[in-house]
Amino acid sequence: MEAFAGCGGVVKSLNTHTYGNGSETIVLSHGYGSNQDVWHYLIPALAYYFKVLVYDLVISPNVNPKLYDPLRYSNFSGYAQDLTCILDELNVRNSVFVGHSMSAMIGCIAATQRPDLFQHLVLLAGSPRYLNDTGYDGGFSRVELDSLFESIQSDFSGSLGRLKPETALSAARSVFLTDNRNVLPHVHVPSTIIQSEKDIIVPESVAFYMKRRVGAPAKVIILKTQGHFPQLTVPNLLLRVLKQTLGIKG
Question: Which residue ranges does the record assign to the AB hydrolase-1 domain (predicted)?
């Protein structure tokens, strides 16, 4: 099996699953170093109100590693194309998209290309740029990122251990070194930006930066918690915030 040619086989190859029978679809998209299982606390509750769609990014350890093309995924556009392919193949329109970490910007890019696919973006612990810049606190200096890349290359653990070392490193470099800030003004789908009060990956200030830059109405919600994975550490709090955001009663 080789890298994707067009949209053929994306739904199956990226382990797409749906739960529930709601009239509206909510898409849950994970971040680097994890897979769709990161949503397991939220899926049963959301399935009462939505058709819940989950899938794995091509860099997930659950996906055939031969599908990873370093050139296609050298920036976030390849990931965004995978997302739009899935939604097109399943005839999904006007969805709610919840993107965690790198998937926040995957959703933003997809929304600039195909706004018809989305009615609302929920950007969870996302960032348009992780590297510090003049007047911008991304959370990491170049020295810190180089150290991170070195540790990825030399010491695999957890789910990363099932990835090829070259895939894990290539993906990490594209995630942490890509600058997607210029995408934000072209996002014309309303969004809610959800951020933990203390996140070692993304500074709280990034959430407000994104709110100022996006091209559609946006709201920031700061969770009174710590960590980069609120869907795992405080799922009930996150679920309550999602229900309020999306106007769900009960």
Answer: 25-126
